[in-house]
């Protein structure tokens, strides 16, 4: 086993596909498969398991990947310091529910730390897929929310999958509406105030359980309901249909402009937003830097509106 073999494992884990990893590594798929098989035989473990959904890391593979990332990063630091070598592309992936602050942190990380070569991935996706991505280490970090309602299912699920939840902040629920919506000028609203407005939520695909919903109060029925798959569409519909969605209250004027505003929702529930990570994984340097930016941006909003968060 050599350094290149470690890079093979890292690339396959990032891609979730032997064929795609081989394409990116500029080697044939049979050669890559043979190399991985040789590593597994040498170590006496199974690193990757083949399923109908593709290649996933085994439990031993997840632990091995953490060490592999650390070794590759340290070797490259030495090479850049003493041999002035050109660094390999930096690798990092994060999966998240649809939060502007997660994108803000991603942007700031790249501005501050991105080199001339990097391969970063940001997946705004469904709740179940976030958990699967982090479990299989396609993403190092996942960002999602908990409430008193869904944590009864989510916390045992995360534990079963070998994942841990780290709290970023807690917030009172707010609605996002168009600045032209009649509710936009209100100091607060109730669920009853929202009854005649279209409710917008993010669809969860085949795992469309109340527990996987991105929005709090998902069990409360709505006369008008629209599911979407991305933030841009949701914001367009907030404006075009005078709809609303329920979230944390954090809005980024840099990303969202001034057409959308947040209004407090008068309910006693609380939203806990945090990041999940595999218990066996060792976070890469870029993952740690992303978390630093994420916490810095969240802290900015917490300090800015102390009554919303804690």
TrEMBL record:
One of its GO terms (molecular function) is DNA binding. SUPFAM superfamilies: Periplasmic binding protein-like II, Winged helix' DNA-binding domain. The keyword Transcription applies. Keywords: DNA-binding, Transcription, Transcription regulation. Belongs to the LysR transcriptional regulatory family. Residues 1-58 form the HTH lysR-type domain. PROSITE patterns: HTH_LYSR. This is DNA-binding transcriptional LysR family regulator. The keyword Coiled coil does not apply. InterPro entries: LysR_HTH_N (IPR000847), LysR_subst-bd (IPR005119), WH-like_DNA-bd_sf (IPR036388), WH_DNA-bd_sf (IPR036390).
């Amino acid at each position: 086993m050599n350094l290149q073999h470690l890079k093979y494992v890292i690339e396959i884990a990032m891609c979730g596909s032997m064929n795609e990893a081989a394409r990116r590594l500029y080697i044939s798929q049979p050669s890559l498969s043979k190399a991985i098989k040789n590593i597994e035989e040498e170590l006496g473990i199974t690193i990757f398991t083949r399923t109908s959904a593709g290649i996933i890391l085994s439990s031993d593979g997840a632990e091995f990947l953490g060490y592999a990332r650390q070794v590759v990063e340290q070797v490259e630091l030495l090479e850049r310091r003493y041999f002035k070598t050109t660094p390999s592309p930096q690798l990092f992936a994060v999966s998240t529910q649809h939060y502007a602050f997660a994108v803000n942190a991603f942007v700031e990380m790249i501005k501050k730390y991105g080199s001339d070569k990097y391969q970063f991935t940001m997946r705004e996706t469904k709740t179940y897929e976030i958990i699967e991505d982090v479990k299989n280490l396609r993403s190092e970090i996942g960002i999602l929310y908990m409430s008193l309602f869904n944590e009864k299912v989510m916390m045992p699920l995360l534990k079963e999958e070998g994942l841990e939840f780290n709290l970023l902040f807690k917030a009172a629920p707010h609605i996002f509406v168009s600045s032209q919506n009649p509710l936009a000028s209100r100091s607060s609203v109730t669920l009853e105030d929202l009854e005649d407005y279209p409710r917008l939520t993010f669809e969860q695909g085949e795992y469309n359980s109340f527990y996987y919903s991105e929005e709090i109060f998902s069990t409360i029925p709505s006369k008008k309901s629209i599911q979407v798959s991305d933030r841009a569409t949701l914001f367009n519909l907030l404006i075009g249909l005078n709809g609303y969605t329920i979230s944390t209250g954090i809005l980024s004027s840099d990303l969202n402009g001034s057409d959308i505003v947040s209004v407090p929702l008068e309910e006693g529930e609380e939203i806990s937003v945090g990041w999940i990570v595999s218990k066996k994984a060792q976070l890469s340097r870029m993952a740690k830097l992303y978390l630093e930016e994420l916490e810095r941006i969240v802290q900015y909003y917490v300090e800015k509106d102390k009554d919303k968060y804690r």
